[in-house]
Amino acid sequence: MEILLFKKKYIAFTFFIIFLFFCFVLPVSSSTVYIIPVKGQIEPGWLLFLERSLQEAERANAQAVILDIDTPGGYIDTVQKAKVSMGEFPFPIYGYVNTNAISAGAYLALITDGFFMKTGSTIGAAEPVLLGGGEVTEKVLSFWEAEMRSAAERQKKDPKIAAAMVRRDIVIEDVVEEGELLTLTAGEAEMLGFSNGTVFSIEELLEAAGLTDSVLIPTTASFWERLSGWLINPVVATFLLMMGFFFLIIEVLTAGFGFGGILSLLAFGLYFGAHFLTGISGWPVIFLFAFGIIFILVEAFMPGFGIFGIVGLVAVIVSIVLAAASTTLGIYMLLISFAIAGIAGYAAFKYFQRKGTLKSFILSQSATKEAGYSSSDDYSHLLDKTGKAVTPMRPSGAIEIEGKRYDAVSEGSFINTGETIKVTKIEGYRIVVRKQDKK
C-alpha cells in the first residue's frame, strides 16, 4: 500500500512540474524582435554597437531585427561593413525610417530585407562627400551609385530611383529634374514602390511584417561604444591632436618628465585608442607612433636635431595620418592641430617664462640687492663675454666661459651643445645669453 501511495505522489509531482513548464517556461520562449537604433551620424562606434546587438539577437533566436533609422548619413565604409554583418545574420532585418534616412542612411535602409517609412519621414540625398573637403572623383561617384543600385535591386526596387539619389544628372519624369538630388517623402516612396509601406509606429510595422505576437527588445549602446564614436569625430580628434602636440612642446621645453608629458600621452592615447577600438586603425599604427615618440624623446636629450628627431617626427606624422578615417582627413587634422599647437606653445612659453609654471625651470627671478638678496658670487664681469654651451639650452642649460661652468638661460632661441654664446644680460643669479653667429 505504501509503495502504491508513493507512486501516486510521484506521478502527481511529475504532472505538477510539467504544468509549471507549460505555464512559465513556454511564454518566455515566445518570439522576440530586437530594436537597434540608428541615431545621428553613422560612424565606426555605431558599427561596434550594431555587431554586438546582432550577436545578442542571434543568441536569443530572435524572430527579426528592426533598425530604427533617423540619421543624416555617415561613413561609406562603415555602412559597407554593416552590410557584411547584416548579410551574415540568419534572421530578417527590417528598416523603420523614423524621421530621416539621408545619404548613407538611405543605403542602410536599402540593405535591409525591406523598409517601412513613418509618416512625415524622408529618404534620399545620397551624394558622397569627402571628409575634409575636396571634389569627389568620378571613380568614387560611380562606385557609390553602383552600390545604391545593387541594394535597390536586392529589394526589387527601381535602381534608377536609388541612382538619382546619388547623381544630379539623372532625370526621372515627374519625380526629379536634372541638377537635383532625389529625396522622397514617405508618401512619394510608397507611391513609387520604393518603400514597403507607410506606418505610424513600429507596432504597425510588426503587423505589416506578420510579427504581431512578438516581444520588442530595445538595445542601447554601451558607454565605451558611445565614447569611441564621439572621440573619432573630426573636430574632437583634431582637438586631441592639438593638445597632444601642445603638451609635448611644453614637455620638451621643461626638464625631466612631468605634467606636460602625462597630458600629451593622454591626448594621443585617446586619439589612437578610439581609432583602434572602432577598427579604423590597428596595432601597427600604434607601434609606429610609439616608435616615433621614443625617438623624439631620445633626440630631446641629445645635442643637435639629427637622425633621431627626423625619423621620430616622420613616424609620428605617418601614424597620425594612417590612424584617421581617410588620408585626406588625417592630413587636414594634422596640419590644423600642429599649427594651432605651435602657436599656443610659443605663446605659453613667452607668458610662463616669467609668470607661470615654467619659471621654476628657467631661472626667471632676479636675485638683486634691491630685492634683499646678497651673494659672494658676482656675475657682472661676464657681461658681453663669449663662451660655449655645454648642454642643449631649451632655453635653460649650462655654459662654459674661460674654463668655468655656469647655469644660464637663452633669450628664447634654442642653442645646441658646443655652439658659441655671448652673455647679453646679468640679473643677479640669472645669466642671459644669445647664440653668437660665426663670422
Quick description:
This protein is an alpha/beta fold and 439 residues long. Helix content is 48%, strand content 17%.
Question: What topology emerges from the helices and strands here?
Answer:
Layout: H1 2-28, E1 32-39, H2 44-59, E2 64-71, H3 76-88, E3 93-102, H4 104-110, E4 115-118, E5 122-124, H5 138-154, H6 159-164, E6 183-185, H7 186-191, E7 198-199, H8 202-208, E8 215-218, H9 223-231, H10 234-253, H11 259-277, H12 283-300, H13 307-323, H14 327-352, H15 359-362, E9 386-389, E10 396-401, E11 404-410, E12 420-427, E13 430-435
Parallel strand pairs: 1-2, 1-8, 2-3, 3-4, 3-5, 4-7, 11-13
Antiparallel strand pairs: 5-6, 9-10, 9-12, 10-11, 12-13
Helix pairs in contact: 2-3, 2-9, 3-4, 9-11, 10-11, 10-14, 12-13, 13-14
Number of domains: 4
Oligomer: single chain
Low-confidence stretches: 19-29, 356-376
Name of the CATH class of the largest domain: Alpha Beta
**End-to-end CA span:** 124 Å
Tell me which CATH architecture of the largest domain applies here: Alpha-Beta Complex
> CATH fold name of the largest domain, please?
2-enoyl-CoA Hydratase, Chain A, domain 1
Give the overall shape, derived from the CA principal axes.
elongated
Structural summary, described in words:
- The structure is a single chain.
- This protein is 48% helix and 17% strand.
- The chain has 439 residues and is of the alpha/beta class.
- The chain folds into four domains: 1-28; 31-221, 2-enoyl-CoA Hydratase, Chain A, domain 1, CATH 3.90.226.10; 225-360; 363-435, Nucleic acid-binding proteins (OB fold (Dihydrolipoamide Acetyltransferase, E2P), Beta Barrel).
- Strand 2, helix 3 and strand 3 (93-102) form a beta-alpha-beta unit.
- Helix 2 (44-59) packs antiparallel against helix 9 (223-231), helix 10 (234-253) packs antiparallel against helix 11 (259-277) and helix 13 crosses helix 14.
- The longest helix is centred in the N-terminal third of the chain and has 27 residues, at 2-28.
